[in-house]
Amino acid sequence: MLKISTSILASNNRIESIQKLNNTNSDYIHIDTMDGLFVPNTQMPINEIIELEKISNKPLDVHLMVENPEEYITQLENKNIDYITIHIEINKDINKLIHIIKSLNYKVGLSIKPNTNIEALIPYLDKIDLVLIMSVEPGFGGQKFMPETLEKAKQLKNYKKDLTIEIDGGINATNINDIKKYVDIAVVGSYITNSENYNQAINNLKN
Ligand code: DX5
Ligand code: ZN
To answer: How far apart are CA 60 and CA 83, in angstroms?
Structure first.
């Protein structure tokens, strides 16, 4: 069954959003951290992640859109985190970062931007748990889904059957049915956090 990771990026009250999500069928809380370098936006620094983790009863799914993930990862020891995802496009030693995430007992995700080919991921597929396909340019919530990115999900399943595929950006009730066929986890932000009833919105996506 499709899992939902709710992004609270676009919420105007993230604490209240997490309190509401605690009582829903959301599987994860998706944390979007941005450093103003990898993407032209700065969001959710480490102290905010730590505060939000304390009030969440859902595991976190941390998406690091930053040039230097190591400085973030090493401050996230012993948290209720399932996945830490870094971007393949950064100019850093990816194998070393995978090792650091694993040493903290978190599952490892690698993310690709819309213009990055899946070939870049191939050398790492045996070492990671999840691929996060960006279906918008990373940086902001509320953008339009790019349907051509879904092709990557289809191709990746052929490379590694047990790979978890996550997709992120512009997902709502109108495009969820296409996504469901190829994806295990959908990251959904504004469709849920702009709705009156979070659980109703989540159930609309799951059913
Ligand atoms: C974009 C973020 C996404 C995004 C999701 O850089 O990674 O998680 O905010 O929000 P919606 O669903 O509004 O596109
Ligand atoms: Zn994200």
So the answer is: 7
pLDDT, tens digit, for every residue of 81-138? 999 999 999 999 999 999 999 999 999 999 999 999 999 999 999 999 999 999 999 9
Contact of 176 with 197, CB cutoff 8 Å:
no
Structure tokens at 197: 């009833």
Ligand 1 atom at minimal distance to the Cα of residue 134 = 7
pTM greater than 0.90: yes
Closest ligand 1 atom number to CA of residue 30: 8
Residue 186 and residue 176 in contact, taking contact as beta carbons nearer than 8 Å = yes
According to DSSP, residue 179 is labeled H
Q: Please, what sign has the CA dihedral across residues 29, 134, 74, 3?
A: positive
Number of neighbouring beta carbons within 10 Å of residue 22: 13
108 C-alpha to center of ligand 1: Å? 19
